[in-house]
Design brief:
Organism: Flavobacterium stagni
GO molecular function: transferase activity
CATH topology of the largest domain: Spore Coat Polysaccharide Biosynthesis Protein SpsA, Chain A
Shape: globular
InterPro entries: Glyco_trans_2-like, Nucleotide-diphossugar_trans
CATH class of the largest domain: Alpha Beta
Number of strands: 12
Order of helices and strands: EHEHEHEEHEEEEEEEHHH
Helix content: 40-55%
Largest sheet: 10 strands, mixed
CATH superfamily of the largest domain: Spore Coat Polysaccharide Biosynthesis Protein SpsA, Chain A
Protein name: Glycosyltransferase family 2 protein
Number of domains: 2
Radius of gyration: 19 Å
Keywords: Transferase
């Protein structure tokens, strides 16, 4: 980790669960950070052991939802400037240099989006809406926090937000079952969020919303040009919409 004292110090944060395949690459890409902290959701593989062997501070915290995990992690940070990447995101040398330069001279901005290049089943996905994918990954903790969403959480900044020029590579696909399990978790948390807001599902949610999601992603956002991978992505994401409302319906019916 960096020993530089001439620029603002950086805390790198991550939430982890069974990420042993990604830990080494992830930590090595964050050599410029002054501290690295993982909030781990009771991993059963070697995630914690590998991280600790590389000097990462690991705090165990049972998973509740994504916003709570991330906001808890922010509270553990020693330094004001935070980089908060996922373990399946690769920080390129160009992005790392831009982050360091930005922290030294952020101007009037307190947070920065990073554009993401999405890879699925070994292929770079160029369409389907993924071409515009970005998330805030660099921010000042005194001016930003996660918005409380159970899933698809976002940093809300009380100041101006910029966009970094360099992209990161996002490899969220490990296997089809793993990707599907991830979407199932997202659907369940989204359903819980709707349940807490007392939203009730109807025929529109079961039939029209999933179909619209498929058409939006595959045709309107040109996912068709990503070939078989584009079709699979549109299909599984549309099914996850159906699953969201099915799980919401089951919550009202008290069905496990």
């Amino acid at each position: 980790m960096s020993e530089t004292t001439h620029s603002p110090k950086i805390t790198a944060l991550a939430i982890s669960f069974n990420e042993e395949a990604n830990v080494k690459r992830y930590v090595e890409s964050l050599y410029f950070a002054d501290e690295i902290i993982f909030v781990d959701s009771e991993s059963t593989d070697q995630t914690v052991a590998i991280a600790q062997s590389m000097g990462v501070k690991v705090i165990n915290r049972p998973f509740t939802n994504f916003s709570e995990q991330r906001n808890f992690a922010i509270e553990q940070a020693t330094h004001d400037w935070i980089v908060f990447f996922d373990l399946d995101e690769i920080i390129t040398p160009e992005l790392e240099q831009e982050i360091r330069a930005t922290v030294q001279n952020p101007g009037e901005k307190n947070a920065f989006f990073v554009k993401r290049t999405f890879h699925f089943m070994g292929k770079r996905i160029r369409f389907g809406g993924w071409q515009n994918d970005k998330a805030i990954r660099l921010f000042n903790k005194n001016h930003g926090t996660y918005n409380g969403n159970l899933v698809h959480e976002e940093v809300k900044s009380d100041g101006k937000v910029g966009i970094l020029k360099n992209r990161l590579n996002h490899y969220s696909y490990k296997s089809f079952d793993n990707y599907n399990d991830k979407l199932n978790l997202y659907s369940k948390l989204q359903a819980l969020n709707l349940y807490q807001k007392k939203k009730r599902p109807n025929a529109y949610h079961f039939f029209i919303r999933p179909l619209y999601r498929f058409l939006w992603q595959y045709l309107f956002r040109l996912g068709i040009f990503d070939g078989k991978e584009g079709f699979i992505l549109a299909y599984v994401h549309s099914f996850s919409v159906f699953k969201r409302y099915l799980q919401l319906w089951m919550m009202y019916r008290k069905i496990d």
